[in-house]
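Researcher: Excuse me, tokens okay?
***
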Amino acid sequence: MMIPVRCFTCGNVIGEHWEEFKERGREGDEDPAKVLDELGVDRHCCRRMMVSHRDLVDVVSPYQ
């Protein structure tokens, strides 16, 4: 649904970076690895959560 506030593995706060990562990734010009480096998301577990997340709020909201 929504990006978790914290990484499930290490507990670092990652939710605050989601909007900027999504906006910069939508443009398609920037490499996701470079964007995550600039945002300060260094751990592999946190990067996995950011890259693999799908925003499903729009898909699920009609069923509420």
About this structure: The chain is about 50% helix and 0% strand.
